[in-house]
Amino acid sequence: MKLSIIIPVYNEERTIATLLERVEAVDLSPWDIEKEIIIVDDGSKDGTIHILSSLKKKYVIAQLERNMGKGAAVRRGIELASGDIILVQDADLEYNPDEYKVLIPPFITNHAQVVYGSRFLTYQQKKDNFTRVLRRIKGTYFFAYLGGRTITLVTNILYGSDITDEPTGYKVFRADVIKGITIDQNRFEWEPEVTAKILRKGIPIVEVPITYVPRSYEEGKKIKWKDGVMALWTLLKYRVRR
After folding, report:
1. Structural domains in the chain plus CATH codes
2. pTM, full prediction
3. Which residues of 92-101 are buried (b: 16+ CB within 10 A; e: fewer)?
4. pLDDT band, residue 21 (cuts 50/70/90)
5. Of the candidates 5, 122, 180, 219, which lies 20 to 30 Å from 113 by C-alpha distance?
6. Distance between CA 107 and CA 128 in Å, rounded?
7. HSE-up of 32 (CA within 13 Å, CB side)?
8. DSSP three-state, residue 151
9. What whole-number distance in Å separates Cα of residue 19 and Cα of residue 88?
10. How many Å is the Cα radius of gyration of the chain?
11. Which sign, positive or negative, has the C-alpha torsion 234, 236, 241, 242?
């Protein structure tokens, strides 16, 4: 079995090398799974592409001609993926690749089709993650946290689901499932779009608990309040669209 790890990258020269080391270090041999690492540069303007150029023999690397957004980069990565399972990995070190050991087993033991890594599945997770937010409470950052919780609530109301973390950066799919879904959105709203289409198909989303180390806007966090508004609009749009 093969796991395709799609890493959309935009201006991550400070973190991409460390992230790749962590991805490489994850041992999936107990499940007899090989890793395919696909990096899609979304028109970076810093030194990211120079770092990646030296790694072309080791990874599958694609470059978008201009900055189009995370959704466009993920879509390109899915096109290139040859694995049985497809996982999206952010390059900013907020999510720990060692969590693959939690994200992958449901596909093997429970024949899951879609797995989301949740930061709010257990009481302790909710407490820990809220505490981390409070440590970094700086206006828009706190609103990003509230926005994520709101998006999850709206998802459950509109689609009759019971998930705890819709905006999670760890979304994992059986390849035939995600390749059977057309991703129209180019930016961050690709995530609620995919969630909406999965739920409309009646495909269950399995959640597993993960850890999370948020970075601040000063450290390069990219999502803005407008992305939250677009996410809500996207959820509504695909609920009424036939």
Report:
1. 2-240 (3.90.550.10)
2. 0.90
3. bbbbbbebbe
4. very high
5. 122
6. 27
7. 2
8. helix
9. 13
10. 17
11. positive
State how far the Cα of 225 lies from the Cα of 228, in Å rounded to an integer: 5
pLDDT tier, 96 (very low <50, low <70, confident <90, very high otherwise): very high
Sheet of 114-118, strand order: 60-63, 34-41, 2-9, 85-88, 171-174, 114-118, 205-209
Tens-digit pLDDT profile for residues 120-129:
888 777 777 6
Strands 85-88 and 205-209 come out as unpaired
Task: Give the separation between CA 79 and CA 75, rounded to whole angstroms.
Answer: 6
Determine which of 39-53, 133-147, 175-189 has the lowest per-residue pLDDT on average.
133-147
The alpha carbon torsion through 12, 13, 14, 18 (nearest 10 deg) reads 90
How many Å apart are CA 58 and CA 45, to the nearest integer? Answer: 23
Do residues 213 and 96 lie in contact, with contact meaning Cβ atoms separated by under 8 Å?
Answer: yes
Return the ∠ at Cα 234 (arms to 122 and 19), rounded to 5°. Answer: 55
Q: Is the pLDDT of residue 32 over 60?
A: yes
- The mean pLDDT value of the chain amounts to 89
- The predicted structure's pLDDT at residue 215: 59
All residues at 6 or more sequence positions from 198 whose CB lies less than 8 Å from its CB, including other chains? 114, 177, 181, 205
d(CA 94, CA 86): 19
Q: Please, which pLDDT band fits residue 236 given cuts at 50, 70 and 90?
A: very high
Closest CA to 229 of 171, 156, 146, 162: 146
